Structure formats: structure tokens, C-alpha cells
Amino acid sequence: MFSIGPYEASPWHIGSFIGGVAIIAGILTFLNLSKKVQRSKLFNSSEIEIKRNSPEEDVFLKKTAELRLTKDELRFLKEVLQSGRADLSVILDNKKQLDEIFKARYKELMKESAYSDAPLNQLTKLFAIRNTIAYFKEIDKADSNYSHRQYIRKESNIPCECCLVGEVKTTQGKKIIKKLVLTNKTFKGAVLGISAGGCSVSCDDAVRVGGKIKIDFTVSGRKASVLSEALRVNKKSNKSVVSLRFLKVLPKSLCAINAFIFDYS
Question: Are residues 106 and 130 in the same domain?
Fold first, then answer.
């Protein structure tokens, strides 16, 4: 017997106390081992697939860095190129093969768009990426227009129908609502050069800078309609050459314009 303060413990009490401590220690040891086993399973390299880029993909990522594509655009570009069995490390420097792959995807999506409008989003993305690649890798940076031109431009001579667009203001309470409306002023012209962002139109009629024009024409075998705004007006002989930027282009029209620019149609 020994005493702790006024309490005297018997051998039976001591044995029970030691046994209880041993049981608690055993439970804690078991829980600790369970956690270690779980941790080892989580970080077991044989059970976790760590995806590493191939040397080819590393080169591809370096070459696409300057394009400043979004993650979604980069993923889409990689998927398009791999579907064409392209060598990712060199494909961006091979314009001919690049266009062959893009053209093949364009034709696939066009077939699908005959039954649904869903592929139009992918077509828009396809040409947006193609224009970006062209801007950074194919446009001559010594060109005086390089600094403000964001899209590949193609010279053309496409007949077009133009209609001046007016603006009507109405009030709704304290709000002033502006609405664009077609006027009776129409004239014929020719699209001399076009890109995904705008075009030049030669016409007999005078157009003021800032004026809005609806242009209808046929390109890549399909009708296109765009709403545009006049940025500059130059006189050439007895005609006006109007530089226009697009304000609104329907997806199908934009697809037809891009197909013409890159010779995919």
C-alpha cells in the first residue's frame, strides 16, 4: 500500500489504473497508425497518376505563351491540332499544315451546323484563335497598319448593298432610349478589303464619319449581313472609299467572312 494525500491505493486499484492507461495508449496508437496508413495511400506515387508534359508539349506551351489565349482557347487549340496528328512543337511555324488542320475542322463543324446552331460557337472560337495566330506570327510587323490591325485582312471586290442606319430616341420616364432603324437611303458599292473586324467599301454616295451602315453581300457562297460604323472616308476619283468597323455581325455571317479570308470555303 502507498498513499497519495489522504487516499490509500490498494494493489488492485493500481493494477486497474495501469490497465486503463495501457488501453487508452493502445487506442491512441491505433488511431495514429490509421492516419499514417491513410496518408501513405493518398501520397503513394504508385497509386497517383502525375501528368507531366512531354518535351513536345513544353515547346508548344512556350510558343503559344505570346498568343495570350485563355485556358479554354488553349485547350481547344491543342485538341484541334492533336486531332490532325500535328507535331505540337513545330506546327505553329508551318502555316500550310496549320491551315490544312483548321480547314478540316471547319468543314466538320459546318456539316454539323446544318442540323444545329451549337457548332457556331466552336467555329467562332476556331477563327478567333486562327486570327490570333496570324496576328502574332504571320502579319508583317513592319507594316504601318500592324499596330492597330487585329485581324487578317484580305483584298476583295465583292458587290454589296448598303443602307444608312438612323437613330431614334424615345423617352420612358426619365430614361432616354436609343434605337437604330433602317432609313430609306440605300446605295450600291463594292467591298474592297475585309477582315473579321471591318472592311472598306467603295461607293458613289457620300458617307459621313461616324455614320452607321448596314451592308449585305455574298461571301463564301453564303449571304452575310453586318452593321458597321464609318471610321474614315477618302475620295478616290469620283468615288468614296469608306473604312468601316463592324459593330454587329451574326455568327453565320462572321463564319462566312472568315472562311473567305483564310480560303477555307
Answer: yes
Q: What is the DSSP letter of 117?
A: S
> Which amino acid is it at 239?
K
d(CA 77, CA 53): 16
Amino acid at 130: R
% of the chain with per-residue pLDDT over 90: 50
Please tell me the pTM assigned to this model: 0.74
**Closest by alpha carbon to 217, among 190, 255, 244, 197?**
190
Residue with cell 487578317: 152
Find the domain containing 33 and state its range: 2-42
Measured from the Cβ of residue 91, the count of other Cβ atoms closer than 10 Å reads: 19
Taking a C-beta distance cutoff of 8 angstroms, is the pair 89, 55 a contact?
yes
pLDDT at 78 over 60: yes
Q: What type of residue sits at position 247?
A: L
Q: How far apart are CA 208 and CA 231, in angstroms?
A: 9
The cell numbers describing 222, all together, are: 453564303
- Number of domains observed in the structure of the chain: 3
Which residue has 496508413 as its cell numbers? 37
